[in-house]
Amino acid sequence: MAMTLSPPADSKLVPRLGIKLDNISKRYGDHVVLDDVSLNVESGTVTALIGPSGAGKSTFLRCINLLERPDAGTIRVAGHTIEPGKTVNARDLAALRSTVGMVFQSFNLFPHMTALRNISFPQQRVLGRTREEADERSMQLLERVGLKEKAGQHPGRCSGGQQQRIAIARALALDPSIMLFDEPTSALDPEVGLEVLSVMRELAADGMTMVVVTHEMQFARDVSDTLVVMADCKIIEQGDPRAIMSDPQEARTRRFLRAVLER
Ligand code: ADP
């Protein structure tokens, strides 16, 4: 559907240039997936999005960088305002997408490119960096995720956890101010997932604004500033993660927490 993307908005509307989603609705045919959902994410904070499968978490996350277009509602993200109405032009969309990095459950690395190339290529394409500039930044980021020695390897020669860390480095290479994670460890063995979660913890400690869809309750409790529980196309509960986990107010939250913690 048609949308408008306006230039950086009044910062008072967006808490410290984080994310403000108002009255987002989305349906696929007759199937309602998001029903009038609103959320504020302050800059420099971590929000964990939890809830049963099919609740709409992934769709909601993907609305933030317009991988999904909501049918209704306003998205204010890092100073951009997007509302139903007019088309988002390709340049504005590219600006939005480079401000908002995304890491998926499946790593989506190019199999025919080395780790270094996977990270450098988007910088050249999106930011117009030279190959030398891009490679220099890529090496810094590979070092940051603990994989400098993998620069010349193809993804097929790296473990799942290493591939996901390369995917995180690739997203960071576009210098985003916000990072979205869609179940980044759920395709990984638990011990391998831990190395990815450790990179994410460091990113959070560095002050990155993050929204993370996850089933990792320990990560959600220890790292997130706000826990958001979704069920049946809506946010049913949100607040301090420890408070919600120890004393959930909603029966559906209680059921969900019991189910994941018993796994
Ligand atoms: P969650 O991340 O909480 O598991 P999703 O956002 O992935 O939930 O999905 C919410 C609902 O939307 C599910 O019922 C799913 O089947 C449906 N859905 C998601 N994407 C599509 C799509 N592209 N077409 C039709 N239905 C979809």
Distance between the termini: 40 Å
Measured as a percent range, the helix fraction is: 25-40%
Assigned CATH architecture: 3-Layer(aba) Sandwich
CATH-derived topology: Rossmann fold
Largest sheet: 6 strands, mixed
The tally of domains stands at: 1
Shape assignment: globular
Structural class: alpha/beta
Ligand names: adenosine-5'-diphosphate
Provide the residue-averaged pLDDT: 91
CATH superfamily: P-loop containing nucleotide triphosphate hydrolases
Would you write up a description of this structure?
The chain is α/β, with parallel strands linked by helices and 263 residues long. The protein has a single domain (3-261), classed as P-loop containing nucleotide triphosphate hydrolases (Rossmann fold, 3-Layer(aba) Sandwich). 37% of the residues lie in helices and 25% in strands. It is built from 9 helices and 11 strands. The protein has a 6-stranded mixed beta sheet, with helices on both faces. α3 packs across α4, α3 (115-127) packs parallel to α5 (160-172) and α5 packs parallel to α6. The longest helix is centred in the last third of the chain and has 16 residues, at 190-205. Residues 7-14 have low confidence and may be disordered. Bound molecules: adenosine-5'-diphosphate (ADP). Adenosine-5'-diphosphate binds at residues 28, 31, 33, 51, 53-59.
